[in-house]
Amino acid sequence: LHMTRLITFTSLLFCCFLFSLSSATDVSVAIERIIDISNQFVEEEIYYEISNSGTSPLASVEIAIKSENLSLWSIHKVTDKKGENEEIVEKLSAIKSEPLRLETQNDISYSILEVSFKNALQPKGKTLIKVHATYTHELTPKPKEITQEELQQMVFKGNFYVASVYPTKQQVTQVRCMQVISYSDDVSPTGVNEEKQIVTFGPYKNVPAWSFVESYVHMYNTARFVTVDNLVRDIEVSHWGNVAVEESYLLHHGGTPLKGTFSRLDYMMGKVGNSIPKFVQHLPEGAWEIYYRDIIGNISTSNAFPHRDFVMFEIQPRFVMFGGWQDEFKIGYNLPTNPYLVVDGDFVDGDRFKLTLPFINNFEDAVFDDVLINVILPEGSYDVKIESSVNFYEQKESAKKTYLDTTGRVVFSLRASNLVSEHRYQNLVVSYKFETSTMIREPLFLIGGYCLLFLAIIIYFRTNFSILDNSGEQSENESKAIKLGNEYIALLGLREAKYDNMGQKNLAKKLGQYNTDMNASATRAQSIISKISAVNPDLASQARSVEQKSKAKTIAFRQLQTGSQDTKTEKGKLRAEQLKEDFIDATESLNQALEAFKHTLSE
After folding, report:
1. How sure is the predictor about 7, in pLDDT bands with cuts at 50, 70 and 90?
2. Ramachandran region of residue 381, left (φ > 0), alpha (ψ -120 to 50) or beta?
3. How far apart are CA 72 and CA 408, in angstroms?
4. Interatomic CA distance for residues 142 and 464, integer angstroms
5. Residue in 577, 579, 589 with CA at minimum distance from that of residue 551
6. I want to staple 292 with a disulfide (CB 3.0 to 4.6 A). Which of 56, 159, 302, 425 is the partner?
């Protein structure tokens, strides 16, 4: 019985092996690959022409994609591809793909994807599949250092066969670059164009599965190798009409390091090498109040140019950047809530909101090694859901307390790595519930706080908290007030001596002396009233009233003396009579106020 079970199990394994072998041989593959190494990252476009050489429909195929340094990839079905004037015109449509497993071949890790056809591929049928992949940190400098006047050179190493699960009947690889310098001897290209910008390898016939030959291409590459080592992006949402964004950059020039020291003179003479004098970033549409700062402070060498769909922000650092040099700075801006924050229409209630922003902004076709995004939602937000087509390897929730907060604002932190500028087309979508009635909580806190402050001030100044007997101090203050009041009355008596008729002779000189004496008297009066205010505020207020009426009498006397010169005409006589009546009224008003002041002083 045991032997029978063993034979049965072995037979099943053999049948499975034969089935898999027959399935693999039913797939005929021809591959055309284009490798673009003219930028700081490597872009691959691989066209798989799949043919069903079997007798049964083919539902799916397996495609291998190198997983090391892979930043971005996509798979489409090409329904129309033709060449016209050396231009490729193709129509792409979505096709279903799912990861199956990880597999290591020739010490290289690959992700095996299962690509399923919407309609099974019939026998002798053909289809064309396009795979686009972007890899970072695949180029290495050669030589290791260059001077300011030398052009940057890079080396690309890789497998010049396309890694395939199936044997391929034909493979062709094109490498496109700025200008090729040299290539490996073991795999020589079959063609190089006149400009030395396109190197062709192949076609190679009947290539076995997982074939591997490592070769290299040495070429010129003057691309701006901007590598962002760390980007911290804080997005703070306010339902008062604003979304504040601050981005902190720590980056370096990932190109060939500078040999020797930097020469400003050579730089001004045009020997700029692979330097980066400025950065250009595309901010979302409607960005305003943009600022640019570093660890020293604000930097004014920046310009913003609004466009239809974005705001181009041009920034110039404090120094040009050569290979290996680093820089650190912050960029901040505000966005209107419309159209980035909307009511989520997928829910019937009106308290669910959806924030949509690019995961990253377009920044100089840079490579982002590490990205941390902190989404700070209003206090009281709950039931938060985060969606993005960008794969982030870490997500955590925390709270941040700012002004007028009680429980704190909800902060969701997302961390991703190995991104490129093409990820700007992929959005970060955050939906959450928030009761708009809670928006008035902070203004109410502010109003209540001010009311409590004013109430405390009123109570403090209106309440006597002293428990000591201050009758002696009050008696001393009263005596000081009486003494100062009498001094003020004496001063007014001295003024009365100045109100004598000056006559017509030397009137101008007499009026000048009169003004001088009265100004000195007024200054002395203000000093006495200030001292009275320190010991008896009520008596000081009454003294100020007397002083105002005394000033009115002084002015009336001056006008009377001036107007009495012209009494020859009837009009002059009438004016002199009116000025005399004004002086008498001012005198009576002063006497009444002075009598009241004396009465208060004597009580």
Report:
1. very low
2. beta
3. 37
4. 85
5. 589
6. 302
Structure tokens at 440: 């008035």
Contact 399, 407 (CB under 8 A): yes
Structure tokens at 588: 């009576």
> CA–CA separation, 56 vs 79, rounded Å?
22
Residue 350 identity: G
Token pair for 3: 């032997």
CA dist 599 → 189, 201, 213, 594 (Å): 119, 118, 117, 9
Q: What is the DSSP letter of 397?
A: E
**Nearest alpha-carbon partner for 44 in 153, 142, 156, 126:** 156
Q: What pLDDT band is residue 471 in, cutting at 50, 70 and 90?
A: low
Pairing relationship of beta strands 27-36 and 168-176 according to DSSP bridges: parallel
Among the listed residues 555, 528, 557, 556, the one whose alpha carbon sits nearest the alpha carbon of residue 542: 528
CA distance 276 to 188: 35
Distance CA 207, CA 567 (A): 130
DSSP state of 109: E
Strands 226-238, 310-315: pairing is unpaired
Segment 136-148, tens digit of pLDDT: 999 999 999 999 9
Distance CA 241, CA 81 (A): 48
Residue with tokens 């829910």: 347
CB 367 within 8 A of CB 430: no
Residue 401 has pLDDT above 90, yes or no: no
d(CA 527, CA 536): 14
On average, the pLDDT of the chain sits at 85
SS3 of 279-318: the string is EEEEEECCCEEEEEEECCCECCCEEEEECCCEEEEEECCC
Retrieve residue 383's tokens.
């039931």
DSSP conformation class of 321: B
How far apart, in whole angstroms, are the C-alpha atoms of residue 157 and residue 42?
A: 11
- Helix, coil or strand: residue 441: helix
Q: Residue with structure tokens 């898999």? A: 20
* Distance from C-alpha of 247 to C-alpha of 141, rounded to nearest angstrom: 30
CA angle at 375 for the pair 370 and 378, rounded to the nearest 5°: 165
DSSP assignment letter at 12? H
Q: What is the pTM for the complete model shown?
A: 0.69
Q: What are phi and psi of 67, to 5 degrees?
A: -90, -20
